[in-house]
Each structure stands twice: as structure tokens, then as C-alpha cells.
Amino acid sequence: EKAVNLKKDLAEMQEWMTQAEEEYLEKDFEYKSPEELENAVEEMKRAKEDVLQKEVRVKILRDNIKMLAAKVPSSGQDLATELNVVLENYQLLCNRIRGKCHTLEEVWSCWIELLQYLDLETAWLNNLEERVQMTENLPDKLDAVNDALESLESVLRHPADNRTQIRELGQTLIDGGILDDIISEKLEAFNARYEELSHLAVSRQIALEQQLQTMRETDHMLQVLQEDLAELDRQLTSYLTDRVDAFQMPQEAQ
Questions:
Q1: pTM of this prediction exceeds 0.85
Q2: Which regions form coiled coils (predicted)?
Q3: CB neighbours of residue 156 within 10 Å
């Protein structure tokens, strides 16, 4: 009777493992939304815990069969053979579920990381757009134009590392067929806005540089003119003070 019960337990254990394999490992999953992916991750975590909890039952079966084999070698030997098959299948099931759980957790982590990088770069784009808008309708003053140019250039000196991470993470998920529609849409919108704002910012930068150069040249010309006028005023004042007749002066002084 002991042998019969143990044989029944082994059969039930094998049946449970077959069902677990069908439920957790053989279904084709399509993760088309973050909710589906998150649910799959949670389901695989529960599956891993469920499978690992059966380890106690497997050990009890193994110990009972060893005890029976020691007492009744003939009955125990057949059960030991079946037990080895169950142990091998159980270990394989544990490894496969652990592997799938780890993979799904990595995929979820990849998705979260992608969203974080997109948030960072979107904040930078918002800042860039604000700085570009600040370059419009500037007062016609050298300091104002110079400050606007330096402010814009400081934002444009933004490293490309985050955009590289976005591209690589997005491509990894898309290649795996995971959230590919959502990710493609997000990347397309981000890249389009990035290209538009970058080109606009660079154009404004060039325009400000040209405006600043023109203003500096004009200021220099005015300064030279003021110096010339001051010198001429000094000379004329000297002539008047000395009561020199205008007709005795050089033509340009007259």
C-alpha cells in the first residue's frame, strides 16, 4: 500500500509539472501593451514561487522512496527509477521557469529604462524649445543678444548618450516583438521633435552669431567715429581759442 501511494504521488507530481509547463512555458505571448507585459512578469513570478514551493514535496517523495527501497528493495527499485525521471523533469522545469522569469524581468526593466531616458530627453527638448523662444524679439542691445546666444549654446552642449540609449533600448525591444507598435510610435514622435527643434536651434544660433558680429562691427565703427569727432572737436576748439582765421586752416578744417 505504501508503494501504491508513493507511485500515485509521483504520477500526480508529473501531471502537475506537465500542466505547469503547458501553462507557463508553451503559451505564445504577445506583449502589445505595457499592461500585458507587466501582467506577464507578475504571472511568471508567481509561477516561479509556485514551482519552488513544490521542492519540499519532491524532497519528501525522495526520502519516502529511499526508505521504502531500504525496506522493500523490489518495490523501491521501480519507484526509484520513476523518481529519477520526476526529479530530472522537476529540475528542468525549475530552470526553464527561472530563465523565463528572468528574461521577462529584464524586458520589463528595459522598458522602464527606455521611459526614463525618454523623460530625460523630453525635459531637455522642452528646455531647448524655451531657450529658442527666448531668442525671439530681443532688444537691440549687444548684451541681450550675447546673453541669449550663450544661453542657447549652453543647452545645445547636451551629450548624445541618452539618445544613444533610447535608440538601442527601443531597437532591442522592437526586435523582440515586444511593445513594438507603442515603442515605434514613441520613437518616431521623439525623433521628429528632436530633429525639428535641433535644426531650429542651430539656425537661431547662427543668426544670433551673425547679429552679434554685425553689432560688434557697428559698435567699433561708432567708437572710431566718436574718437575722430572728439579729436576734430579738440582741434577746432584749439583754433577758436587761438583766434586763428578759418582761411588760414587746411581745407578739411575749414
A1: no
A2: 3-64, 215-242
A3: 15
